[in-house]
Amino acid sequence: MAHDPLRFRSTINLLIFFAVLILGTLVFTYLENRSLIDALYYVIVTIATLGYGDVHPVTAAGQVFAIVLIITGWVPFWGSLPNGLKSC
Fold first, then answer.
1. Is domain 5-80 given the CATH code 1.10.287.70 in the classification?
2. How far is CA 34 from CA 2, 6, 87, in A?
3. DSSP calls for 1-30
4. What are the residue ranges spanned by the domains of the chain?
5. Which pTM does this prediction carry?
6. Spatial separation of the C-alpha atoms in residues 83 and 50, rounded to whole Å
7. Cβ within 8 Å of residue 46, ≥6 positions away
8. Which helix (H) or strand (E) holds 84?
9. Residue 28 has what pLDDT?
10. What is the DSSP letter of 74?
11. Which of 35, 39, 68, 79 lies in the 20 to 30 Å Cα band around 1?
């Protein structure tokens, strides 16, 4: 079986994305004392760079976390899109 670098890269990006999604949700829940669904919604909206503003961090720790989330979540999320389009 031949090794497909595009598929491998897409798989790694997807795994990183889900790790950031899960960890981000748990950290935001803890830092901002939010429900899991609010935290998950915030993480998805933030990573996708939609920024509705209805759920946002109010603590300094939450704001620093948001910066880290944007940097770490943006790359695997948007980085996997061109790979997926190439395979279409």
1. yes
2. 46, 37, 38
3. ----HHHHHHHHHHHHHHHHHHHHHHHHHH
4. 5-80
5. 0.77
6. 22
7. 24, 66, 69, 70, 73
8. helix 60-86
9. 96
10. H
11. 79
Contact 77, 48 (CB under 8 A): yes
Residue 8: both structure tokens together: 């491998």
Task: Pull the structure tokens for residue 40.
Answer: 């998950």
- For 12-54, the pLDDT digits (tens) are 888 888 898 999 999 999 999 999 999 999 999 988 878 888 9
pLDDT at 81: 63
Pull the structure tokens for residue 20: 């950031």
Q: How far apart are CA 7 and CA 40, in angstroms?
A: 27
| Spatial distance between the Cα atoms of 59 and 75, rounded to a whole number of angstroms | 25
Contact 57, 28 (CB under 8 A): yes
Task: Quote the distance between the C-alpha of residue 12 and its chain's center.
Answer: 14
Q: How many residues does the chain have?
A: 88
CB 57 within 8 A of CB 66: yes
